[in-house]
Write a structure and sequence with these properties.
mainly alpha; about 0% strand; HTH domain-containing protein
């Protein structure tokens, strides 16, 4: 019976880890939308992708990818 109990405990931990991963994925998507909206606001104000990239310490291509998502 001890093996079954350990098995059940492991399954519970797997389910908890999965739930946390799903939650974090949803948060990441929300933050990506917010980030994109903020960058679009800067672009609308005339700030270049290169300037944004420089400020964030990433490449211009990274900015393009962020804006495409």
């Amino acid at each position: 019976m001890a093996d079954l109990s350990a098995h059940e405990a492991t399954v519970v931990r797997i389910k908890e880890a999965r739930a946390q991963a799903i939650h974090h994925t949803r948060l990441a998507r929300q933050f990506a939308v917010e980030r994109r909206d903020l960058m679009q606001s800067l672009l609308d104000q005339g700030v270049s992708q290169s300037d944004i990239a420089r400020e964030l310490g990433v490449s211009r291509q990274a900015i393009q990818k962020m804006m495409a998502c």
